[in-house]
Design goal:
By secondary structure, the chain is mostly helical. It has one domain (2-149). Helices cover 61% and strands 7% of the residues. The chain has seven helices and two strands, in the order H-H-H-E-H-E-H-H-H. The chain has helices at 2-17, 35-52, 54-58, 72-85, 100-119, 126-132, 135-146, and strands at 63-67, 89-93. It is globular.
Length: 152
């Protein structure tokens, strides 16, 4: 457990110092139990985001999307929408351990899931409580400190 906490703390420190921002999208399977409706909701949210932030993405010569091919539907949505919005796009499959920023993205998503639990007043699991000590500690030591990185 101490090794895991140490690795987590180092990655969290790196994320806080890195010149990044992030955006997450939240979907509840119980609200969109049908796979096609869920894929449609994801596509719609990402398309709106890409449209609203097109100027930012167009400021680069090339847009590179890194994904670990974890879910086929997400891979399809990312590839389709990024290539529909921008001309010079590479969608690259990655091995997470090879890319520190990919690990940071995973960390941000994990903390956003925990934030959703805190916001929804859902209980943290036993392992989450062992790791973060309490809801208050999780919020104060991690969620609040990562907040400035969240894209508004």
């Amino acid at each position: 457990m101490e090794k895991r906490k140490g690795a987590f703390s180092r990655l969290f420190g790196f994320a806080r110092r890195a010149p990044i921002t992030y955006q997450t999208f939240r979907f509840r399977k119980k609200e969109t139990p049908d796979r096609l409706k869920l894929k449609g909701a994801i596509s719609r949210a990402l398309a709106i985001y890409l449209r609203d932030h097109a100027e930012y993405f167009l400021s680069f010569d090339k847009v590179i999307v890194y994904y670990d091919n974890g879910q086929a539907e997400i891979t399809d949505v990312l590839n389709t929408l990024f290539n529909a919005f921008f001309f010079n796009v590479d969608v690259c499959k990655v091995v997470p351990s090879d890319y520190r920023l990919f690990q940071v993205a995973d960390l941000c998503c994990t903390l956003e899931l925990l934030k959703a639990k805190v916001d929804d007043q859902t209980s943290l699991s036993k392992s989450e409580l062992v790791f973060f000590r309490s809801r208050r500690s999780l919020k104060k030591d991690y969620l609040d400190k990562l907040e400035p990185k969240r894209r508004k």
